[in-house]
From TrEMBL:
Residues 1-28 form the signal peptide. Gene3D superfamilies: alpha/beta hydrolase, Galactose-binding domain-like. Residues 310-520 form the Xaa-Pro dipeptidyl-peptidase C-terminal domain. This is S15 family peptidase. Keywords: Hydrolase, Signal. PANTHER family: DIENELACTONE HYDROLASE DOMAIN-CONTAINING PROTEIN-RELATED (PTHR22946), POLYKETIDE TRANSFERASE AF380 (PTHR22946:SF9). Pfam families: Peptidase_S15, PepX_C. Residues 508-527 are annotated as: Disordered.
């Protein structure tokens, strides 16, 4: 029969605590007082915090060893990621405390030992963040004038939403999160099935989804078009891009970090949100998949994302003149090399452009996977990060009955792709609904294509046989195509990452009218 879920969660919490506490010395933060740590190490307390509506939130407090009467420290509040226990940030909290911060990390409502139900960053979650700040100011030597929030994934979303509502929050670091929830898991009007299924499954395993969440996900995954507007409204209430006015009015310092291959919250929506911020801001993109760019830091290992987060808070909460305010606010690392690049804004990324014509007419049968696909959620981006091996397709062997293919000439010089590629084409379907997925490949001399980027697109309510224009943003990326290689654009109708809406036996025709030619616009870095 196995352990009950509550007992299993308790056992896993204890095991993870042992691992993270053991990582303390390696992180440079020292061990934890009360757990065999040495003198002068940060002190940890496990506490219950009353959240919104009296819901009990399980939390831990990590404070400097010299904390005492008459002293105050900047406060950093860390809501946990989706399905993660309250010990998620313990290694990083130790490093913050050693640098002179009070850190309160808490288990988001509905997960593990915290009370309540999973609301997906709904109003109770936002109110919880403010209640945790209230508690910290009343029970720790935290300075009310120096409050910051940070988090990974779900914790990033809650942090941004809370900062938009609570004027006490002066700085935020949102890592692998979202600004537009619908734009993340429903981009191109296409359900990101693997991402939604993974999140839903983990929610049921480690927490208690609310009735509203269960209903929303059931309608989403079953493609209830009659409920589409309700789902979009639900997502909009949980999207900070609709509440940006509060952040801009107060000049909240916002740092955004994400991975190019994030298969749950793709980077495009962060880049668009960043451009709309008017206060102090920073945008960092690195190779990886969802939460992998900051993952090693959760075990106390050296990590660029967490180093940037501490520098951000050091400047905006402690007043340290570390130069972060004078550096280019956009910081990118290409998937192809280890060097960081700085830009003054997102528009400057990929300021040059190459246009690939998608000429002629190509017709494909729907409902069959051609062999071109975006990989697996949470895995493919991580494999690319650590081995530089993205999903691969043998482009010459892709069956032309199921995939439209266009290729460029071989390039004499490297093509440094930076930013967001945009597809424009004309589509004629034999059904009122349909789904297509566009891919951009780096094709080597042997015809093997490495995936550069991709994105899905779904249409409904179209008149069969009537052409219509499609404009699609592919997921933003930074990738260097070697000299001697070519680019290939592939469009098919099935990808395991997504739910497709092609009627049985349907066809899609891609054409390029003379007065509206089809093309892919590829942004390039100016040398």
């Amino acid at each position: 029969m196995g352990l009950p879920r509550k007992a299993l969660r308790t056992a896993l919490t204890g095991a993870l605590c042992s691992v993270l506490l053991a990582a303390g010395p390696a992180s440079g933060a020292g061990s934890v007082a009360g757990t065999g740590g040495r003198a002068g190490a940060p002190v940890v307390r496990f506490v219950d915090v009353e959240g919104d509506g009296g819901t009990v939130l399980k939390a831990n407090v990590v404070a400097p060893a010299d904390a005492g009467p008459g002293r105050s420290y900047p406060l950093v509040v860390l809501p946990t990621s989706w399905a993660m226990p309250q010990l998620e940030y313990l290694a990083q909290a130790g490093q913050f405390a050693a640098a002179g911060y009070v850190v309160v990390s808490y288990n988001s409502r509905g997960f593990w030992q915290s009370g309540g139900e999973i609301e997906v960053a709904g109003p109770p979650d936002v109110a919880d963040a403010s209640r945790v700040i209230d508690w910290a100011l009343a029970h720790t030597p935290a300075d009310p004038a120096r409050v910051g929030m940070a988090g990974v994934s779900y914790g990033a979303g809650i942090s941004l939403l809370a900062a938009a509502e609570d004027p006490r929050i002066k700085a935020v670091a949102a890592l692998s999160g979202w600004a537009d929830l619908a734009g993340s898991i429903y981009s191109g009007r296409t359900q990101h099935a693997q991402a939604a299924a993974v999140l839903t499954g983990l929610g049921f395993l480690t927490g208690r989804p609310s009735a509203e969440l269960r209903g929303i996900m059931a309608d989403f995954l079953s493609s209830r078009l009659d409920q589409e507007q309700r789902i979009l409204d639900w997502a909009a209430r949980r999207s900070v891009d609709r509440r940006i006015a509060g952040l801009n009015a107060r000049g909240t310092a916002v740092m955004l970090g994400n991975a190019w291959g994030d298969s749950i919250f793709p980077p495009n929506q962060y880049a668009e949100f960043f451009e709309r911020l008017t206060g102090p801001k920073r945008l960092e993109f690195r190779p990886g998949d969802h939460a992998t760019a900051e993952g090693t830091g959760l075990f106390g290992l050296p990590n660029d994302t967490w180093t940037s987060t501490r520098r951000w808070f050091d400047h905006h909460l402690r007043g340290v003149d570390n130069g972060v305010d004078r550096e280019p606010p956009v910081r990118l690392k290409s998937r192809s090399d280890g060097e960081y690049e700085g830009y003054r804004d997102w528009r400057s990324v990929g300021s040059a452009e190459r246009r690939l014509p998608l000429g002629g007419t190509q017709r494909v049968l729907t409902g069959v996977d051609s062999g071109a696909n975006g990989g697996l959620v949470l895995l493919s981006g991580a494999l690319d990060q650590f081995t530089r091996v993205p999903p691969i397709a043998a482009v010459p062997l892709l069956p032309r009955a199921f995939a439209a293919v266009w290729q460029s000439e071989r390039y004499d010089a490297p093509q440094r792709i930076r930013g967001t590629s945009r597809l424009h084409t004309t589509v004629t379907g034999t059904g009122a609904s349909g789904t297509l997925v566009a891919y951009l490949y780096d094709v080597g001399p042997l015809g093997l294509g490495k995936l550069v980027t991709s994105a899905p697109y779904t249409f409904h309510g179209r008149t069969p046989g009537t052409p219509f224009a499609v404009d699609l943003e592919l997921f933003s990326t930074a990738y260097d195509v070697p000299a001697g290689h070519r680019l290939a654009v592939v469009v098919d109708t099935v990808d395991p990452l997504y739910i497709e809406h092609n009627p049985a036996g349907a066809q899609l025709t891609f054409s390029s009218p003379a007065d509206d030619p089809s093309q892919l616009s590829v942004p390039l870095r100016e040398e």
